[in-house]
Design a protein that fits this description.
Number of helices: 11
Order of helices and strands: HHHHEHHEHEHHHH
Distance between the termini: 42 Å
Strand order of the largest sheet: 1-3-2
Oligomer: single chain
Helix content: 55-70%
Length: 206
């Protein structure tokens, strides 16, 4: 039903990010999920460019997310690409590169990303994930900055193109997270600010 609605000639929901007529379908599918699977779905809303197995393991833990991911795939809420890579990566870059070997997972349409993003009750989880993701991408941006000044700059550019949506989402969410944290002192102090500053700095340098 989801794919049929998005393939309709008059439908622009695949690009606008508005769940529109898909809302009842998405709500119904979401309601059937376990709480852990719901959290994984919401997490992917913070990663609009998608996520490699390496990144998901870094955030969620080794292997703990795979069963829930299978459920999301069976429900057509996640699309999977096998052995995802952009361009011809060197073996050295492949071993470090997010999106190198292994499967790559993403919410399939802008409407699904928008639906995951507006789920209530997961804000504290999102702020925690946002910190972890920011630290991860700060490190990747540092690696890409080094590649940018070498003969591997094509690989660095490909990485930026592939992860552009997620990088912008990280920077956009950071401002809201800081305001929320300032109004809720019970939240633990975070190292995310320095990580985001590093990510932003590296992106500007590139």
């Amino acid at each position: 039903e989801l794919y049929e609605a998005l393939s309709c000639p008059n439908s622009d929901h695949s690009t606008t990010g508005d769940s529109g007529i898909l809302e009842p379908t998405l709500n119904s599918a979401f309601a059937e999920l376990s709480e852990t699977t719901k959290k994984l779905y919401v997490l992917l809303g913070l990663l609009p460019s998608g996520a490699s197995e390496q990144l998901l393991t870094y955030i969620w833990g080794d292997g703990d997310w795979k069963k829930d991911m299978e459920i999301l795939i069976d429900a057509s809420l996640v699309a999977i690409q096998h052995n995802f890579a952009m361009g011809k990566y060197t073996s050295e870059l492949k071993s470090k590169q997010d999106g190198g070997e292994g499967n790559f997972y993403r919410l399939p349409f802008a409407a699904v990303i928008a639906h995951a993003d507006k789920q209530k009750g997961y804000l504290r989880n999102k702020i925690k994930w946002h910190e972890t993701i920011s630290i991860y991408f700060a490190g990747r941006c540092e690696e890409m900055r080094k590649y940018w000044t070498s003969d591997k700059n094509v690989e660095a550019l490909n990485w930026l193109i592939q992860n552009e949506q997620t990088l912008w989402e990280l920077l956009h969410f950071a401002e809201f997270a800081e305001k929320y944290r300032g109004c809720n002192q019970k939240l633990e102090p975070s190292s995310r600010s320095s990580s985001l500053s590093s990510t932003s700095s590296e992106l500007k340098t590139i």
